[in-house]
Amino acid sequence: MAYVLKNWTANGRHRKWTAGLLLTTALATVALAPAASSWAQSAARVQLDIPVGPLSRALSTFGRQTGFQVTYLASFASGKSSPGFSGSASAQEALAAILQGSGLVYSFPNATTVTISQPSADAGPVTADGSTLLSTINVEGQGPAGIAAQASAAGTKTDIPLVEIPQAVSVVTRKELDERKVNDLNDAVAYTPGIRMVDYTSNQGLPLVYMRGFFSQSQRTYYRDGLRNGFNPYDMTIEPYGLESISVLKGPASALYGDALPGGLIDMTTKRPTEERFGEVQVEYGSFDEKQIAVDFGGPGTEDGAVLYRFTALKRDADTQVDYSPNDALYIAPALTWKADDATSLTILGQYQEQTRSGSEQSIPLDNATFGSGFTIPSAFYMGAPGISDWNSKTTSIGYNFEHEFDNGWKLNNNLRYTHSELDFASSWIWDWPVAVVDDHYVNVGLQQRPRTSDSVLFDLNLAGAVETGPLVHDLLLGASYGYSNIRETRTNSTNYNHIDILDPNYDFDYTYGLPWSASKELVSQFGLYAQDQIKWDNWILTLNGRYDWVDMTTYDYYSKTVYAAYGYTDTKSTEEANAFTGRIGLAYTFENGFVPYASYSTSFEPASGTDYNGNTFEPTTGTQHEVGLKYQPLGWNGFFSVALFDLTQQNVTTTDPNHSGYSVQQGEIRSRGLELEAKGEIADGWSFVASYAYTNAEVTKDNPDSSGISEVGTHVKAVPYHTASLWLNYAFEDPMVEGLSIGSGIRYVGGSYTAMDSSTGTQTRIPGYTLIDAAVTYDFGRKSPDLDGLMLALSGTNLTDERYYTPGFYSNSVLDGKRRTIKATLNYRW
User: Fold this and answer.
1) Helix or strand holding residue 187 (H, E)
2) Which fold has domain 16-215?
3) What is the pTM of this model?
4) Helices (H), 67-157
5) N or C, which end of the chain is more exposed by having fewer CB within 10 Å?
6) pLDDT digits over 571-580, tens only?
7) What percent of the chain has pLDDT over 70?
C-alpha cells in the first residue's frame, strides 16, 4: 500500500531565528490553497477477482488489480465487510459492487486515484467526474507521482498507511530525487528532519550518519528493499539513480528489524520492473569534470505481461574538490518479475557496483580550519599518496522478493539477498598533530593497507492478514528473519611517512611496509522472530510490536608469528552472544478531517563488543523512546504534515571502570530530546514545497570520571546541532509562453555543533553552523514541441554561494571539510 503525496522536492536549511517563520509561512500558504481539481476517470473495463471479506482487504485488492491509488480514512472501513466482485467491469461498476451496503461513496480526484469517503449532507449522487470532497489518507497502488509501496512498509513491514504509523517516518520519492538532481545519498536526505549525514568528500563506503542525536558508522542504519544492506560499512556506497524511494524511520526500530541504531534507520527501495514499457537515457556533465551516463528501461517481456523486466545502469568518471580524489562508479542493476497469477509474483533483483574513491582520511586539525588560529589548509589539498591511497570496491548482490496472497486475503512475503564484496583499500592519515601552525605549512602523511573481503546472506519471511474479533479488526503480521556475515581483513602500516609541503606538494615518494599487524575474521549470525498487531476500533488504532533476537559474534585474530612470537602473542578466538527482546506500543486516533494524533513507546538494542575486567562480555546497549506526535493529511489536495516530540535514551553505554584502570563498565547513558516538524505539499497553480525543522538536545547523562577525574556528563553529543531547518519551493510554469519550465530553490540551515570532549581538558570546541543554497531549473521540450516529447534539460547546483563549512571530525581536535559548490547540467530523454 503506497502512501501517496504527489511529489514535492527537498528542502534546504534555514537560520535558527527564521526556522519558525519559514514553517509558518509555508503552512499559511498551504491553508489558502484551493482544493485540487478533479480529473475524469477512464471507464475502461478490466478483469477483477475480489473475494468476500473485510472492506479494507477488498479495497486493497482492487487497488492492486487495477493499479489505482485507493484513498480513505481508516475509520471508514473499520468493521465493514464487502460482498466482493468477480468479472469484467469498469472501475465505477466494480467500486459500486465492492462498496454495496457500506454507506460509503467514491470519487476520482485524478486519473490514477480513487477516494472513498462518507457522503456529505449535500453531496448528492457520486458521478465519474469526482465532484465530491476528497479525503486522501489511505492509498493503494502506485501512480506516477506517488510514493512507492515500500514508503509505508518501512514503519510496519505491511501496507498500513503512513499516517497510521505511531512513529515519525519521512519519505523521499523518485520525483523529488529527480527534481533536485540528487548527487548522492547525503543530498537525498538533506531536507529531512531528524537526520544528519556528514558531508565528507573523502568518505569511504556508506555515509557517516546521525539520527536523532545518535551516531552510526555501521550497516545497522541502512536497509535496501526491506533487508539490511549488509554488515560491512566499507563495502559499498549507494547510487540514488538506482532508487525508487527512500524512507527514513526515526526512533527505535528493533521491534521490526532487530539490532538497530536507537535513532532509526534508512530503508531504500530499488527500481522494479514495470507493466508499462519505457526507456530513458541520461547524460550529465558537472563540476570537478564529472561525466556520467545512465540508462533505465523496462516493461513487459511477454505478450501476456506475465514477465516484466527492468534494467538500470550508470557509468561515472569524475574528480572531486580534493586533488587526486576520484568519484568513479559503474552501477548495473537488472530486475525481472514473474507473475504466476494475480496472487503470486517473484521478483529477482541483481546489482553490481564498482567504485573508486580517495583513501585519504582528510582530517583537518581545528587550528587549520577557516575559524582556527593557524595556517588554513586548502580544501583541495590531498593528504595522501596519489594512485596508492585509494578505496576500490567491487560488490555483487543477487536476491529475490516473493509474494503470494491466499484466497482468505492473507499475504506471504519473502525477501532474500546474497552479497559478495572485495575491497582494495589503502588509507592515509596525518602522522602528527597539530600541523601547519603560522609559518609551518608541512604535514607528515602515513599509509595503511587494509584489504577486506566480505560475504553476507539476509533473509526475511512474514505472513500478514486481517481478522475480526467482535468490533475489533486486527491487522496481523508474523515473521522471522536471519542474517549471516563473514568479513576477512588485514592491516599493514607503512614504516615511513612523507613530509609534504601544503603550498607546493610533492608526492613523488616511496612507502615501505612491514608485516601485517592485524589479520582477522569476523563471523556474525543473527536470528529473530517478530509479531505485530494493529487493532482498530472505530477511530482508535492500537499498534503492538514484539520481537526476540539471538545474535552470535565470533572473531578470529591471526597474529604474525614472525612479529609477535617474541611477545607471547598467539592466535585467538573470541565469541560473544547477545539476546534481546524489543517492542513498540502505539495508540492513535483518526479524526475524519485528516488529523491523526498518536503516542508511542519503543525500544531498541545494539550488540556491544568487548569485555569487562572479569572477562565478561558486554550486554547489548539498549534504547527506549517516548514519542508523541500529530500527523495531518488535508482534505482534497496532496499534502502531508507531521509534528513529533521525542525523549530517547540509550543505556548500557561503556564508560571508565572506576575500580580497574584500563577497563570499562556499562554504566554510561546518553539522552536525546527533540522536536521535528515536516510539511510537504503540492499547491495550486504549479507550486509545490517541502519544509522542515528539527530541534535536538543530545547529551551524556551518565559517565564515570577517568583517571584524571574528568567526566563527560553534561557534554553535547559530537556533531549534533541543536537546530536545523530547511525549505524547498518548486514552481512549474503554466503560462503558454514558458510552458515546460520548472524552477526550484532551497535553503538549508545547520546550526553549530560540538567536537568530542578533549580528554585532557574536559572541554569541547564549538564548530560554526552554516547556511547552504540549492537550486534546479528544468525545461521539458515536449511541452511546446511534440516532436521533442521526452527530451528534458536541467541545470542544478548545491551550495551555490560556495560556503566553506565543517563537521566535527573523528577526533576531539579535528574537523571534516564540507562539500563545496557543485553545478551540473543534465540532458534526459525518455520514451
Assistant:
1) helix 185-188
2) Phage tail protein beta-alpha-beta fold (3.55.50)
3) 0.82
4) 74-77, 91-98, 150-156
5) C
6) 788 888 899 9
7) 87
